[in-house]
Amino acid sequence: MSAIVDVKTLVIDGKEVSARAGQTILEVARENGIEIPTLCHLDGLGDVGACRLCVVEVKGNNKLFPACVTSVFEGMEVSTQSERLQKHRRTILELLFTERNHICSVCVSNGHCELQSLAQSQGLTHVRLPYRNPDLPVDASHERFTVDHNRCILCTRCVRVCAEVEGAHVWDVMGRGIDSMVISDLNDPWGESSCTRCGKCVQVCPTGALFDKSKVGSSHPKYPDFLPYLNMMREAK
Amino acid sequence: MTVEELDQIAESTRAEYAKYDHQINVCMGTGCLSQHSDQLKDALTKAAAGAGSNTFVRRTGCMGLCAAGPLVLVDPEETLYQHVKPEHAETVVASLGKAPIPELQCNLREHFDEQVHVVLENSGHIDPEKIDDYIARDGYQALVTALTEMKPVEVVQQITESGLRGRGGGGYPTGLKWSTVAKAVGDTKYVICNGDEGDPGAFMDRSVLESDPQRVIEGMAIAAYAVGASKGYVYVRAEYPLAVSRLNASLREARRRGLLGNNICNTPFNFDVEVRLGAGAFVCGEETALIASIEGKRGTPKPRPPYPAVSGLWSNPTLINNVETFANIAPIIRKGGQWFASIGSERSKGTKVFALTGKIKNTGLVEVPMGIKLRDIVEKIGGGVPDGRTFKAVQTGGPSGGCIPADMLDLGVSYDALMAAGSMMGSGGMIVMDDTSCMVNVARFFVEFCMTESCGKCIPCRAGTAQMYRLLTKICEGHATMDDLDLLVDLCGTVKETSLCGLGMTAPNPVLSTLKYFRNEYIDHIEHKKCTAGVCKIGNAEEVLA
Predict the structure, then answer these.
(1) Which of B315, B482, B492, B494 is most worth mutating to test chain A (most A CB atoms within 10 A of its CB)?
(2) 3-state helix, strand, coil in chain B (%, to 5)
(3) Which residues, 6 or more positions from B254, have their beta carbon under 8 angstroms from its beta carbon?
(4) Most buried residue, A128, B64, B189, B413, by most Cβ within 10 Å?
(5) Is residue B69 over pLDDT 90?
(6) pTM for the whole thing?
(7) Sign of the CA dihedral A194, A199, A205, A209?
(8) Chain A partners of B497 at a C-beta cutoff of 8 Å?
(9) pLDDT for A31-81, tens place per residue?
(10) B262's torsion region: left (phi>0), alpha (psi -120 to 50) or beta?
(11) Which chain A residue has its CA at the smallest distance from B300's CA?
């Protein structure tokens, strides 16, 4: 006997799609080959709706909805690529590029950085805003990894993977607003923290903020795809 | 506790006070205390005892007219004295029963006549830490009536009929919120009172908690009964030490009288309240961030839905209302929803407390019926702009609101009218500005506030407000171009439309509203390199340094 599945039908970018009740717009869109840009979202982690890149328009409502945390409803009409959304997405990316010191040419993630790829896919050719050029530290105290705060975009994937998957909760956020910083333990050097050295945070980091010391130059691809697999294997045991 | 017992306490308290020929009420709210009204009270008590007069000297909460403090109200004559110092004590006591002292008397009839007191009905008349004083003025009648004579659904119905809307700023219909929580499925439900007042220049909630804390507790208890909760939290800023200590004292009194605890009024209803202190983060006034803070987590907002009414504190259905909203509940239950709905305007019912500050003669706390013209608040109640200067704008809604210019002063105060004017009701801050205020600088001040108070979770608010602040600084310093202005407007749009919570969504309002009504000032700064109000230092480096 199978449970009754509540199916919703909706329209995303003119395409009629079906979904299970409780699914998010993002899940349904990706299942149907509709790409919505995201940064803080990662399959396998809880969503926080923080980067705002995945905002979409829902017909009948002037507000914008983050696709990663908005559930679908019957008859919903979603638009993911309007002029308005693209403009906002470019501005958000612009805000990220000017917030800290993102210099692709000297970054280990050059060529496989999610922020860089998004800038390309969203058509961000230049920034209009002034660079803030903050003075930020690099913590290389860990024997295997380094955290370069200049490249951090505060997506909190590292915080979430450490707390939700590894269960160590070494990472968290300190301070507020523009002064927010990702810290290990109570702002201790990473190398002296309670880190378990699992390296999950490095793999899920979308930029070059967290990287493996053994990878030099721009030869540091990351493999965050292990997460859904890991979750699946844990559930299956 | 039964209605009869309550009446008995009220009777005996009133009889106790009736023994005195005179009662001298001394304001001991934070404003008057800062001018040593505690010493004044001691001096008055001593003088009254020394003169052998049959007089009772009472500590009370705020009387509203903070600009004229310390204030003293003599009953039964209702003579109000202003700027009273300890050395005046003997004179005041000697004048009892005779003509009032002209030098000290406060004759601002117009200030008080235009006001309607519902939330502040007891402020300045009762000792905030004496529950019997509150009971003597019909306190807890509403709770006992609700528990013994009304079904929860009937309570919600009265609130819905009253048309009360959330006083924290958003204006969400209170009855609708209550019925949502009442219908939410869950064994454990919570009631939270949001006392994390953080708007610059706003002190309504502090004043209510300092002057009449029992009213808030009673409102919460009624709410808990209506929605089926048994535990409440008051989240109040640690920067309000007097409010916190009076609240704690009042909670003890209420427990002692059996109005909090188990089986209240011999019914199966249990309810108790705990105080939680905020550590000074403005964003914790946002309900999901406030809930996270109570849970002991970092105070950052979460995307809604799910709304707290469905999944709030520890994922249980939670009712969260502002201090002033809860302060309105008891009178609504006592006098009926229809009575409340008869005050105010079409879609905004009842009264609203405003903290009137800035370039205004009568700084202080005022309570006015909804729909009153801004002009009446500024000119009649506020006494107008001092020093013969010209009124320029009034800022409502704190950092989420906007500036309303002089030619719109005839606007009636309501949620919708203020929203349409590009501002908002907000929690009740009202800052009056004259021609010495530069509107670009005002916008910059509020954006700076939002920038430093942003929690940093979402990008538009975290980095967007910082960039907005930079652009505004550039304009204030006279280095900006018209392109910068376009960029600022563009940025405002993104921050407003894509931010995660209310803080970011409304952060551009001060910029957008000043741009709407005072665009010429922006142009003056950019094109003509001048600041008409003379606030911004524009010029070449030598001039600034000289």
Answers:
(1) B494
(2) 50, 15, 35
(3) B131, B214, B217, B260
(4) B64
(5) no
(6) 0.93
(7) positive
(8) 55, 63-64, 88
(9) 999 999 999 999 999 999 999 999 999 999 999 999 999 999 999 999 999
(10) beta
(11) A176
